[in-house]
Amino acid sequence: MILSVGLCIALGGLLPLAASWITAVLVAGIPAGFLIAAEGSLAGLVLLAFWHAGRQNRIDEDSHVAED
Amino acid sequence: MLRGDFTQTMGRIFFIYIGGCLLAATILVILSLAGVSDHAVGVAFILLTVAFYAVMGLLGRSARRAELTDYDVAGRHVPAFYNGMATAADWMSAASFIGLAGAIFLRGFDGLAYPIGWTAGYVLVAVLLAPFLRKFGQFTVPDFLAARYGGRVPRLIAAVILLSVSFLYVVAQMSATGLIAARFLGLDFPVAVFVGLAGILACSALGGMRALIWTQVAQYVVVLVAYLLPAVWLSQRVAGIPVPQIAYGRALDRLAGLGVLDGSWLTLGDGVNFCGVIFCLMLGTASLPHVLSRCLTTPSVRESRLSVAWSLLFLLLLYTAAPALAAFAKLELANLGADPSIDGAGGWFSAWQRIGLVARAAAGDGPAIGGLIIDPDAVVLAMPEIAGLPFVVAALVAAGALAATLSSADGLLLTIGKAAAHDLPGNGGRSGISSGRRLAVARMAMAVAAVLAAWTASARPAGILTIVAWAFSLAASGLFPALVLGIWWKRATGPGALAGMLAGWSVAAVYILGLKTGVISPVGGIGDVAAGVFGVPVAAAMTVAVSLLTPPPSARIQAFVDQIRIPRGRITLPEGD
Q: What is the set of domains in chain B, with CATH numbers?
């Protein structure tokens, strides 16, 4: 859980900030830093949400606290 | 007429909804091909959208009698996939539909703080709050806070904070309906706001969330299509590929060639506020009532986690198209600004100029493109016409925006009505007031809130996205620490939570008001849109400090906290409240 919150902050806050320095590289004509902030960071967060849901549900079952 | 289990009802509603939309669009395309004037087509689109919502509300209403419980969380048996789509549709309000692309248009990279903050906030909901509130199983945030912290006062304060947040959110929706009505019905903005109000109230009075939850799934599809259509059209035209998410590189290229794209648009300008806005939106999203109440419509704790993930995926489609839309709008403006023929009466330019949202740039004005200045709130709505797309496309975008706005406003007014009837009396509605009486109170509160919001919006206090950002700051400062500490820190006490909620909310509210009225100047360069940067730490510190000074919560409350953290088992409420 702490891992998920940490990853959430990393993807939502730190990644776009770090990426904002990458301006020289162009991907499909868009500076890579802009693209990462506009799309990469969001895609990462969606994956995180699914990953967390799956992992937490598995943890619940393993420790026998999942709903019946 | 609309009874039945989920899939059965689902199929019927979906068919009625999509079929109705297709029919309406076809009729209007035929009308405009037959030479009916653009103005008439625009008016017809707007009226059809509102009428459509009113009818959907009525259909849903026939499925139930006026019962307050029904008004609310629709039966808790919606699968995660559909619930996610419905949450996404709830979420797509004027802020994301109209405000977002405008903010990116105006501020480039810095505007990306909004989609990032919202998305990250959703993840926080999934991790920190949704499953636990689902386990708790009651309807509202004040319910939870009252059970956790004990008694009337936390419920009352939470309800007041909720009211303030929902109210600002409604103001933003009203601004949007006002803009749409002003442009397409040819009214003055303040008049148009009240016309929009009539539409919202009509839809709201006729339906509840029961109608919404089924229609929302179809609504998501329709709103997304309306948003993506011009973006896909232009990316095909500009770059030859119908994928706006990657095609806007070509538009950037051309803008650079025209010499109108200054490099700062694509790079981070104001890092402090960029982070500040992300922070406030993240925590604000996590404590926003209408997102949290959707968590309760899933059948299980497991599904509530997945539901948030799905809704995020659906929102991603809209968020990633916004920068493309902004870039295309810049390109089209740059291409045409010098053209004097746009000044003619009856065209888009004069229509938007009349409302004061576009103007020819004069010397000394801010950044202009192609000699024009355009208000961020007009970018999405005016774009199809600026780009010379058929007028029907512009009308479709307006109808999509109106649909997004109507449903958000409706959901928020319900929240307000519920808070007024259920939480403000301070006892969670268990005082023996009849449910008919409470429904009347709820309706009245909704109407009063709606009229006040329209009155506020008619003065256009700020852009749509700014107003929404204030709401997020207030939600984050007022509710986030109390909610999260309530679940994750057993030692948090009632007085602590109260002190935190009051202090955090006041700090954020005072900061916003102070900056707006010019009484104080920005502290550390932080703008009013990021007021939660001060509110949240104050709230958290107060909660912790006062909790440590007061005796720990009773064993029953601590046991209750343990129970909501574990998906299995039953909940025993700490006290009868």
A: 6-463 (1.20.1730.10)
